[in-house]
Design a protein that fits this description.
It is a single chain. With 173 residues, the chain is mostly beta strands. It has one domain: Lipocalin (Beta Barrel), CATH 2.40.128. It is built from 2 helices and 11 strands. It has an 8-stranded antiparallel barrel with strand order 3-4-5-6-7-8-9-10. Strands 1-2 form a two-stranded antiparallel sheet. Strand 7 and strand 8 form a beta hairpin. The longest helix has 13 residues.
Length: 173
């Protein structure tokens, strides 16, 4: 499958060849995910308390993505980056296209998912980026490393992983 968008200087294009999980129960997937670790885009550097909240809009058949984080420290200024996503037809809900803003759309591949939906690993075809997320606010390094070990068995690049500080208190959402 080929997904391309672009202008002369901005292009997002990929041939989806990295395997995803066989299927995703979209209703179970929706909700709050805490970003634990990964290899991030330039917009996600030096983030703390990173959270993604997914909501499926039945009417438009889109997924609203509410990405928020604290810049620099757990008490830093809260930043929000709303996005919209679409499930790629025929992917059993495991391949999405995510748009941070028009006209860009990027592949979002659910490459590993806990049976109980307690954690997920999301990647991209060229393996440059990786997001490991949990349903709970703080995952241990051991839990994250076990997921990384699993991803290595799938031949997904796990080099240069950054861990996201998740330090919550009453004054911080």
């Amino acid at each position: 499958m080929l997904t391309c968008l672009g202008f002369q200087t901005l292009t997002a294009c990929s041939t989806v060849s990295f395997p995803t999980v066989p299927s995703v129960d979209l209703a179970r997937y929706m909700g709050t995910w805490y970003v634990s670790a990964g290899r991030f885009t330039m917009f996600e550097k030096n983030v703390n308390n990173a959270v993604e909240i997914y909501h499926y809009d039945e009417k438009t058949k889109t997924i609203e993505v509410d990405f928020s984080y604290r810049k620099g420290s757990p008490e830093g200024k809260e930043k929000k980056m709303p996005q919209k996503a679409w499930v790629v037809e025929g992917s059993q809900n495991a391949h999405w296209l995510v748009s941070p803003f028009w006209p860009l759309k990027f592949d979002y591949l659910i490459i590993a998912l806990a049976e109980d939906y307690s954690w997920v690993a999301v990647g991209v075809p060229h393996q440059k980026y990786l997001w490991i997320m949990h349903r709970k606010k703080q995952a241990s390094r051991e839990e994250i490393n076990a997921i990384l070990d699993h991803l290595k068995t799938l031949h997904y690049n796990t080099d240069a992983i950054e861990y996201v500080p998740q330090k919550w208190n009453d004054n911080v959402r």
